[in-house]
Amino acid sequence: MQSRVLAILVAVVLALVATAALVVYVNGADRRAISDQEPRQVWVAIKAIPAGTSGETARNTELIGLREVPRRNVVAGGVISLSQIQGKHAAVDIVAGEQLLQKRWVGAEEVTGRRLLTIPPKHQALSIGVDTTRQVAGFVTPGDKVSLVLSISGQGGESLELSRFLLQNIQVLAVGATALANATTQGGGGRVDQSSGGGGGDQSRSANLTAVTLAVPEKHVERVVYAAENGSIYLTLMPPDAEPAPPSDGVTGGNVFGGQ
Fold this sequence. Notes:
By secondary structure, the protein is of the alpha+beta class. It has two domains: 39-110, Antifreeze-like/N-acetylneuraminic acid synthase C-terminal domain (Type Iii Antifreeze Protein Isoform Hplc 12), CATH 3.90.1210; 123-238, no CATH class. The protein has helices at 2-37, 55-60, 203-206, 221-230; strands at 39-45, 64-70, 88-90, 105-107, 123-130, 145-153, 161-175, 210-217, 232-238. The strands form three sheets. A five-stranded antiparallel beta sheet has the order 5-8-7-6-9, covered by helices on one side. Strands 1-2 form a two-stranded antiparallel ribbon. Strand 6 (145-153) and strand 7 (161-175) form a beta hairpin. The protein is rod-shaped.
């Protein structure tokens, strides 16, 4: 009788111990699950990013953005600060939804043989020399949209001086040292020469010019080159989704004050 009671007591104690162990395990699993679900903000590709795209362009054109993911899904070596890809370029094509990895962003000189400028179809990349004042005090950056205002004189054999929109809503591909020549198509892959360019200024001003590279529609390339060689170009910075200014005949000395 006593042995049976003892056996029952041992069985009860073992059951209690097993139950306690199970409770501890379940609580620990719950804590681990909750910890794994703690959201973390990571930088991801919102849209596909072509190889050669600079970090600045990816940011300004909203190709990348912050997203919350469970902690267990955070990839090691991910980009946690945009400073980590500043001045760098995508070494490979990055698909939409992919977390940004530091190792996939390299210096432009390491993207050998790849196009470092993403040129839209039926456009051509064209650089013009613009001083700081004429590029909105230097606030023009890759990915921005700008308009070109041309001041020119002597049109069609006339002495008339005129300022007028030349092109509007033009994408900026690169500015100054952020633009690197294509090693394949431009013979060397060096940085854009900031001391060269048109803009109609004299040689004393040329050293202060910065190369601004634009995506110009093919049919307007010759117009921009002529304007840069024979006139003075100002860039205006356009807000996102801005509509082009209405067409006009331009401004001369005769109508600059309006109503004259």
